[in-house]
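EI: anyone free to look at a 173-residue chain?
SC: sure, send it
EI:
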Amino acid sequence: MIKTEPVEEILSRIQDRYAEKPRGWRVMSTPRGDMLVLGPDSAFQLKMIPLNPWEFTGAGIELPSPQAALDSVKSSPEFGLRPLSNRDFERIIKSLTQPSIARPNLESIIRRAPVSPLDLDRIKSSHLLTGPILARPDLASLSPEMSKLTSMLDKEAEKTFRERYPMRAGMYF
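SC: here you go
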């Protein structure tokens, strides 16, 4: 059986790995707090319950082996932090009112290599483009294995939430 971990520990591990190697990451999320994070050498599935806009609790797992269902996610553009020049930022703002120029502007930025958070001080950019984060109604529809993992993580995340925040949990569950 796969062992779940607190989402806070897994997020820390993901951040450390991303900082070491910012290329090859993909992220998919759902409106219900499910998240799939694919790194160049690892993959994680998370169930996050928001405590406030900056904090989460929940459960997650490091997927033991990449699944065929994840191949479609791997073909998407790389997730990352991309520094923007003032000119890039102005083009993005201009794209909001002129949709015809949006695609080429964003494509040129998305093609740039993502940078590590450790390099941001050295780069000294005042603007960043983060993402892309793919959105999906649910992860369970990706495959039967993902459906089982989603169900297991839902239960573990709720259990963690109830243990850590019993008064809040009473309002939601």
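EI: The CA atoms of residues 28 and 69 lie 13 Å apart.
SC: 👍
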